[in-house]
Amino acid sequence: MSDYVSVTDPASEQEAVQRLKGIASRQAAAASRLNNSRQNSEAAELQARRAAVADRVRELAVMITPEEVRARDPRRIMTDIGRQFGVTLRDITGHSRAAPIMRARLAAIHAVRLAHPDMSVKRLGRNFGARDHTSILCALRRIERDGVPQPPANANMEAVQ
User: Fold this and answer.
1) For residue 3, what is the DSSP state?
2) 136 and 91 assigned to the same domain
3) Is the same domain home to 47 and 123?
4) Is the distance from CB of 144 to CB of 91 less than 8 angstroms?
5) Alpha-carbon distance 85 to 106, whole Å?
6) Element (H, E) at 124
7) How many domains is the chain built from?
8) Which of 41, 102, 122, 131 could form a disulfide with 135 if both were Cys (CB 3.0 to 4.6 A apart)?
9) Is there a contact between 111 and 137 (Cβ–Cβ < 8 Å)?
10) Residue 97 placed within a domain
């Protein structure tokens, strides 16, 4: 059937309705074909992206050793940063606001955030002694504004010895 529509006036109202119904059904069929082809191409593209991500995950899983996985553990990162600053994990996760402990805590928050960029601030707060997410946001802003605190020189010397 052709998409051509006669220009002549229909002989009756019933004929006009029939023509309009024919036009509408042809347009619906064309729209359906177009939607199906779009959905098929989008589905194929999505499937290809998922396959690429799955391949990349498999590659990375082979590349990461168990030691590297342990090194990314937030508690281990906090302990290592604490050792550099001369404070304990308990100090970092505690409630003290003493300057040396605060510097170590900020450095630890930064290090954990770098190791786990996908970790939510709420979860970061839970790792740092049940802190509220707004406290972590404040710490991240402070790090952005002032930079990452560096361990004092005497704490580095103790860590070396």
Assistant:
1) S
2) yes
3) no
4) no
5) 11
6) helix 121-127
7) 2
8) 131
9) no
10) yes
Among 40-44, 96-100, 156-160, the range scoring the smallest mean pLDDT is 156-160
Residue-wise pLDDT tens digits, 53-77: 777 766 665 565 666 666 788 999 9
Its domain, for residue 109, covers: 70-160
Q: Which residues contact 108 (CB under 8 A, 6 or more apart)?
A: 77, 78, 81, 82, 92, 128
One-letter amino acid for residue 73 of the chain: D
Containing 134, the helix (H) or strand (E) segment is helix 133-146
The type of residue at 26 is R
- The first and second tokens of residue 107, run together, are 């450095």
Cβ atoms of residues 89 and 75 within 8 Å: yes
pTM above 0.70, yes or no: no
Kindly state the tokens that stand for 119: 């970790």
For residues 74-111, b (16+ Cβ closer than 10 Å) or e, as one string? beebbeebbbbbbbebebbbeeeeeebbbbbbbbbbbb
